[in-house]
Amino acid sequence: MSEHKKIALVTGASAGLGAEFCRQLAPRCDVIIGVARRGERLAELAQELAGSVEFHVLEADLNSIEGVARTMETLRQKGPVDYLVNNAGFSTYGNFENLQIDTQRDMVGLHIDATITLCRAAVPYMRERGGGHIINVSSLGAFLPGKGLAVYGATKAFLNYFSQALHTELLGSGIEVQALCPGYIHTEFHLEIEASGFDKSRVPEEFWMQPQEVVRISLDALGSGKVLVVPGQGNQTLAASGLQQQLDLL
Ligand SMILES: NC(=O)c1ccc[n+]([C@@H]2O[C@H](COP(=O)([O-])OP(=O)(O)OC[C@H]3O[C@@H](n4cnc5c(N)ncnc54)[C@H](OP(=O)(O)O)[C@@H]3O)[C@@H](O)[C@H]2O)c1
Q: Does the reported pTM lie above 0.90?
């Protein structure tokens, strides 16, 4: 039996959760392809991981057709990948009617279009190989429709539905799909929305998690058959109450 290299492709690898996915996937992989717009940040991560994994920098904007096309081509040339982590994301904060529609459409493009396109590109190779892992980074916000995050939360709800349905379609193929639904994590994610009035300091410290813990929970859940992974007991309670409130409306 021929041994193949274990390969991961992680989007949004230049910061936060994505960089941490690369760090924790390194012991499981021979090659990691990190995708993001900031090539210099990816190069720093490549240096940090040198010696533990072969790290390829792919500087690409996943909001552009060209960036997604280059990422798909990399999947084809360097793959098949064993791990596909669709993590790149951002948020805005504010009521929908006051937000720039271009930015909202960019969010839909990045969270939804890029994710389904990369899944569509990776799945046939994974199927041919007899298995693989897809992690789509969603959010606790998917369960809690609320003010200020209408499009953000809706894109994440899409990812939950999509991941659950895709997982079901792929049963028996050896390919598993996870939608990771974290609550607040200490990353660079809130820098931009703080400028729009999101007050990070009003969220009590017990609601925050570190990226290391969130990624560990995500990777530990692989193989469990669990599709929706909500890290943290408090977040699981909030997700359940969000679902209950939606049922109560019926
Ligand atoms: N932090 C939280 O509290 C939290 C909670 C729930 C869910 N999440 C989700 O977790 C994921 C990761 O977020 P994070 O917290 O790690 O935030 P982060 O520290 O701001 O990292 C976001 C990553 O996405 C990349 N990215 C953004 N736009 C991109 C584009 N157009 N093309 C390619 N890459 C792009 C960024 O890279 P470049 O800027 O270099 O392109 C960066 O690597 C997101 O999907 C987010 O929705 C975060």
A: yes
Report how far residue 243's alpha carbon sits from residue 67's, in angstroms, rounded to the nearest whole number: 36
Domain boundaries, the chain: 7-248
* Residue range 113-133, pLDDT digits in tens: 999 999 999 999 999 999 999
In ligand 1, the atom with minimum distance to the C-alpha of 38 is 40
Measured in Å, residue 13 CA sits from the centre of ligand 1 at: 8
For 43-77, write each residue's pLDDT tens digit: 999 999 999 999 999 999 999 999 999 999 999 99
3-state secondary structure of 228: strand
E strand or H helix that includes residue 33:
strand 31-36
Q: Are 136 and 177 in contact (CB under 8 A)?
A: yes
Is 152 annotated as catalytic? yes
Atom index in ligand 1 nearest the CA of residue 17 equals 16
Report CA(189)–ligand 1 centroid distance (Å). Answer: 6
- pLDDT of 96 above 50: yes
Task: Report whether residue 16 contacts ligand 1, using a CB cutoff of 6 Å.
Answer: yes
* CATH class label, 7-248: alpha beta
